[in-house]
Amino acid sequence: MAFVPPARHLLRAKDAADSRYFEPLGVDDLARAAGLSRAHFSREFRRAFGESPHAYLLTRRLERAAALLRTTDRSVADICFSVGLQSVGSFTTSFTRTYKASPTAYRAAFPPASRHALVPTCILRAHGRPQHRTFREDKDGALN
């Protein structure tokens, strides 16, 4: 069977799922973005991308949650709601099924988020300067 590129309307729905995963999106919303009925959209999406629209959206949300678990100290519940999911229990179950570890265990397998904290350059420069300047000072502290 020859590869048939997905139609542009299906790509619009996929792009909507990628960019708006944190919103309370459903299959109806994605079908609307594609300009198709829910049933026809679901069939065409599965045929084009190999998974249901719901599974695709859930995968995007779980990928983002995994990134947040690796790089932040936010609570599991906060991460769950920030990626657009409504139930911490369902999130934990889906995450564990996908990543073979609970969100808490997954986070523990990575270095603490504080190691990833970016410090502004101005702060690095201020704290990197010598504290005791000796330029043009005598031993008693008077300037020449």
Please describe the topology of this protein:
Blueprint: H1 8-19, H2 27-34, H3 38-49, H4 53-71, H5 76-82, H6 88-99, H7 103-108, H8 121-128
Helix pairs in contact: 1-2, 2-3
3D structure, described in words:
α1 crosses α2 and α2 (27-34) packs across α3. With 144 residues, the protein is an all-alpha fold. The protein has a single domain, classed as Orthogonal Bundle (Arc Repressor Mutant, subunit A), CATH 1.10.10.60. It is elongated and about 85 Å long. Helices cover 58% and strands 0% of the residues.
Would you summarize the structure shown here?
The chain has 144 residues and is mostly helical. It has eight helices and no strands.
CATH level 1 name: Mainly Alpha
CATH topology: Arc Repressor Mutant, subunit A
Distance between the termini: 87 Å
- Please identify which CATH superfamily we are dealing with: Homeodomain-like
Shape: elongated
| Quaternary assembly | single chain
